[in-house]
Specification:
By secondary structure, the protein is an alpha+beta fold. The protein has one domain: Thiol Ester Dehydrase, Chain A (Roll), CATH 3.10.129.10. 23% of the residues lie in helices and 40% in strands. The strands form two sheets. It has a six-stranded antiparallel sheet with strand order 1-2-6-7-8-5. A two-stranded antiparallel sheet has the order 3-4. The model has no long low-confidence stretch (mean pLDDT 95).
Length: 134
């Protein structure tokens, strides 16, 4: 399985537009960070829903690749998100994924999103990815 540095290099190469930071990688669990700035905010001074959805989708992808290897063609088939509370506009967002199913063709991840330093999640998501046949 790829190391944290190999995952970081893969994202730099394949997704240079991605502005996520891979914080930690362990068995079926990954944490990523997004540095929040004014481009991620919506009126009312909160982090936008699309930013949180991007984080949920990305962290599931990183968690899957950490387990199956660097497969660029694994794709999202569903993503369901619940927005729970207002994220802080002046704190980074952390996304923590735990894979709850990793099969040959499908993987399912559960994600909790937090404003950095807060104990209560700002959103919860579950996503499914299709894994290409080997």
């Amino acid at each position: 399985m790829p190391t944290k540095n190999e995952l970081i290099n893969f994202f730099r190469s394949e997704f240079p537009q991605a502005d996520i930071v891979i914080e930690s990688v362990s068995a079926k669990s990954v944490t990523i960070r997004k540095k929040i700035n004014h481009t991620h905010l919506r009126p009312g001074g909160t982090v936008s829903g699309p930013t949180l959805m991007e984080m949920a989708d990305a962290v599931i992808y990183v968690a899957i690749l950490a387990e199956i290897g660097l497969v660029a063609l694994a794709v999202t088939t569903s993503l369901n998100i619940n927005f729970l509370r207002k994220p802080a506009s002046d704190k980074d967002i952390l996304a923590v994924c735990k894979l709850i199913k990793l099969g040959k063709l499908l993987a399912v991840g559960e994600v909790s999103l937090f404003s950095e330093g807060e104990d209560e999640p700002v959103a919860h998501a579950v996503g499914t990815y299709a894994i290409p046949p080997r």
